Amino acid sequence: MSVRTSGSNRLGFTLIELLVVIAIIAILAAILFPVFAQAREQARKTVCISNLKQINLAVQMYVQDYDETIPLLCGSNTVNPGTTFYTWQDAVQPYMKSYQVLFDPDAFYTGSTLAWGAPPPHQYYDYMFSYGMFGVVGIVNEFNGTNYSSWVTRSSSWLQHFVPANIQYDGVAGAADYGGWWTAPMNTAVPSVTMAAVARPADYAFIYDAGNFDAWNGITFATSTMNVGIGYCGTFLNGSGGAYDYTFFGPNPLHSGRIDHACEAGVGGAPSDPAGMRGFGDGLANVSFLDGHAKAFKGPALLALTPDRTHLKYFTITQ
After folding, report:
1. How far apart are CA 319 and CA 312, in angstroms?
2. Looking at the predicted structure, is the pLDDT value of residue 263 above 80?
3. In which domain, by residue range, is 13 found?
4. Is residue 1 part of a domain?
5. 4: pLDDT confidence band, cut at 50, 70 and 90?
């Protein structure tokens, strides 16, 4: 394969040999780079599910100390509500002792993008936007004077590929945002449910990958009607009015799926998504259940129905 150059003892390669070597390297790179990317994504997904188990354990310890009552989604008082605002992640810090665990390695927010200028840990509040749980429907009732008994799935046409409209589902966490930092000011606190109120703790999807601490479900728009919920697509806006990153309301299937790990807001029917389903079935959402175990789910699998087809199997506390 080698050739001796004239008047010299040095060995060299022919152009053909060099091209063959380069081609082999290119082929190996094309084969291995996706494998490395998949391995890195698998590692991030594993870190995420480990985070969820640790977070859930901290919540379980909190529950045992507070008469088996699930922590509130959030709360604030009427004096300086921005600096007194807290979420369930803050409430369980004495048991978790780490804000870093609250960051999903696949999530967009990293701890330096969303700031409000408050003292630590609220200097940056990105830690609120990796994992979430559902609030009780009583939060909406508090604002609207309604008497809804549960959340219901929306009638959005693309969501009907996965679940019928008006299927009932339940949240478990209350709120006491008296200062109105996240919701409008609340006059009366809405309590969380107790562990005893959940019929099947091993089947209730409790804490999971989500765009924010309340999984964008209901409480975010507590002064409006029941027109948002699982599968809705939204984002925060930056100072210039641009979107940070779109996420699904409810569980967010951001692992092992779309490259940007986001839903396709307003892109239904695009060539990349011909059925108009916004990539909801492409990725995996890590979910920890009320009994403490955790596993990964495809988005559609989380919308399985109870045998009587009236409730979402993994989000009902009554059956």
Report:
1. 10
2. no
3. 9-315
4. no
5. very low
- 203 versus 105: the higher-pLDDT residue is 203
Tokens of 222: 């507590």
Q: Is residue 143 part of a domain?
A: yes
Residue 319 has pLDDT above 90, yes or no: no
* Comparison of pLDDT for 85 and 41, the residue scoring more: 85
In a domain, residue 183? The reply is: yes
For residue 37, being part of any structural domain is answered with yes
Tell me what pLDDT residue 271 has.
44
The structure's pTM equals 0.82
Total of domains in the chain: 1
